[in-house]
Amino acid sequence: MAFDFVFNHSETLAIAGRTADSHCGVRSVCDSDWYRAPMSTGRFAICDLDGTLIDSDAALVEAFITLGVPRSSISFGHVIAEECERLGISLDAYIDAYDTAAAQPFPGVVELIESLDRWAICSNKHVVSGRAELERLGWTPRRSMFADAFDGPKRLGPMLEELSLQPSDAVFLGDTDHDRACASEAGVTFALAGWNPRAVPRTGDIVLERPQDLLEILGR
Ligand SMILES: [Mg+2]
Fewer Cβ within 10 Å of end Cβ, the chain: N or C? Predict the structure, then answer.
């Protein structure tokens, strides 16, 4: 099974895309003849960064802990400036404390990125940290938009506009409820990074088991 399409609510949703022999609560797209999602060729991959392409939880947490934030107060997927304000710490201090060399790509992501020619990054990450990580990894997306590109949380609309894409031309790969909401608001197909154990499938999600499964969603 390459990936699953979650079709109803169930306590078993958490296993979607991770248990090859389980069809309880999920249904294989590959096996289904009822699935009629558009599969036009060569859709553009717009990707979240933290928790989707790179396993950055530990690096994000370590910077907060260095600045005295209790581990229990830390959560993920936020605009970093808003999160620093919520936690009562300086954004500049956080950027200084964040180790841009620490987070590594999830298994299979390097190979995915190497196989993509039309892809972009859309992230709530601070632009300094985000650009440093892209440079370290040698990743050169067509466009990268970080927190400084938005007035508030990231949105896909400005990215589509800059790339002259229609919503149906793109797929958004992400790991959080906010990522899913971004895709929904923009009318873009959402694919959940099921390789992140923190990613929780919801009704209607396409849950990818492995990074390379994105290629099938893109129509390649
Ligand atoms: Mg994320």
Answer: C
CA distances from 165 to 7, 150, 156, 159, 186 (A): 28, 18, 11, 8, 11
Only one residue has tokens 């949105």, namely 155
C-alpha of residue 34 to centroid of ligand 1, in Å: 30
The rounded Å distance from CA 33 to ligand 1 centre is 32
Q: Report the C-alpha gap between 128 and 146 in whole angstroms.
A: 9
Q: What is the pLDDT along the chain (220 residues), one digit of tens a residue?
A: 455 655 443 333 333 443 333 333 333 344 333 233 434 458 999 999 999 999 999 999 999 999 999 999 998 878 888 999 999 999 999 999 999 999 999 999 999 999 999 999 999 999 999 999 999 999 999 999 999 999 889 999 999 999 999 999 999 999 999 999 999 999 999 999 999 999 999 998 999 999 999 999 999 7
Distance 121 CA to ligand 1 centre (A): 11
Q: Hey, where are the domains in the chain?
A: 3-55+104-218, 57-97
The residues, any chain, with a CB within 8 Å of residue 68's CB and separated by 6 or more, are: 89
CATH superfamily membership of 3-55+104-218: HAD superfamily/HAD-like (3.40.50.1000)
| 50 three-class SS | strand
Distance 154 CA to ligand 1 centre (A): 11
Please answer whether residues 218 and 171 qualify as being in contact, where contact means their C-beta atoms are separated by less than 8 angstroms: yes
